[in-house]
Amino acid sequence: MMSRKIKFNCLKFSLVAGFMLFVQIVFAQGKFADFESTVDARRKSLGNDLMVYIANKDTILYQKAFGDMNVRTQAPVGAASAWFTTALVLQLVDEGKISLDDKIVQYLPIYGSYAKNYVTIRHCLTHMTGIQTDPFKTASVTAKQKFESLEEEVNSYAKKEIQTNAGEEFRYSNMGPSIAARIVEIVTKKKFEQLLRQRIFSPLGMRNTAFVTEDGTPASPSTGAKTTAADMTRFLQMILNGGTLNGKKILSPEAVAEMRKIQFASEKIKNAPKTMNGFSYTLGGIWSTDLVEEPGATASVLVSPALLGAWPMIDFKRGYVLVVFPKSFTGEQNQNEYLRLKEVLDQARF
């Protein structure tokens, strides 16, 4: 008799909990009605097949699939891949194994043979190595020369011409994050993809995220990640939480503060996608939506305007993350479309 009563009470509790969750979802969807209609009206430029997430530090507040999309749909995220690479580098900084201001010749002596002794890991994560790069074109970033290993790729960069002194000019390319990722491999004696899976993706429950290529060659640490909107949301929630999510510590608060730090004045930006015009740069593919002239200032809003369409965004002031995630390549993005979404979202008062 007692067992039946317990089962009945458990059933009542489950029904009530389910009903409350349903009410919460309906309420949330209504609160974001203006935002949803704004997304729908802009799908031609954002992507017809689209997944959108809004979350605070620990709760998904809104999720919506548009067109042929669902929570398990995996797609490339372009430049947002460098967020993962940067987090991995900062983990080793947290552990005292490397410093952002270490010179890369400590780990890659070949660079000393080609007069690149003053390039640091920080320069690599801020596109300020001074190594010759081509004028920015979408194809030059998304296309990738085939190498048998990350080691082979990074060693080839050492032989490139010096364009300017390290730290003087920002010139967007895939080289810097690849060099930083190779240093992580050298220090840990493990492969880049393996480290990300063990140290970041698995602890955060990002089961549908990986750096992969169709031909088996090494994926670019700058642009080679494939993920889902749900997985990307978990990663951003971790950063919003100061480096921890669901009891799993990925980064220290100091590391997150470094991710938010404006690294240099905008006058140093010489070569970047027009999508980033008017933004300040922080670290490893991460931009601030405000043009802040003072290096060392703390960004309140972080974003990665990926050429492949994905726009992850963190608003620390208002306490939310936004992930706009298209299924396929849509061309170079118009930042005004995404900033308009943020403007509408900020009016939702959630």
Helix and strand arrangement:
Layout: H1 2-31, H2 33-41, H3 43-46, E1 50-55, E2 60-66, E3 75-76, H4 81-94, H5 121-125, H6 138-142, H7 150-158, E4 170-171, H8 175-188, H9 192-201, E5 210-211, E6 225-227, H10 229-240, E7 244-245, E8 248-249, H11 253-259, E9 269-271, E10 280-281, E11 287-288, E12 301-303, E13 311-315, E14 320-326, H12 335-346
Parallel strand pairs: 4-9
Antiparallel strand pairs: 1-2, 1-14, 3-6, 5-6, 7-8, 10-11, 11-12, 12-13, 13-14
Q: Which descriptor suits the 3D outline?
A: globular
Classify the secondary structure makeup into a structural class. Answer: alpha+beta
SSE series? HHHEEEHHHHEHHEEHEEHEEEEEEH
Q: Strand-residue fraction?
A: 5-15%
**CATH secondary-structure class:** Alpha Beta
Relative helix content: 25-40%
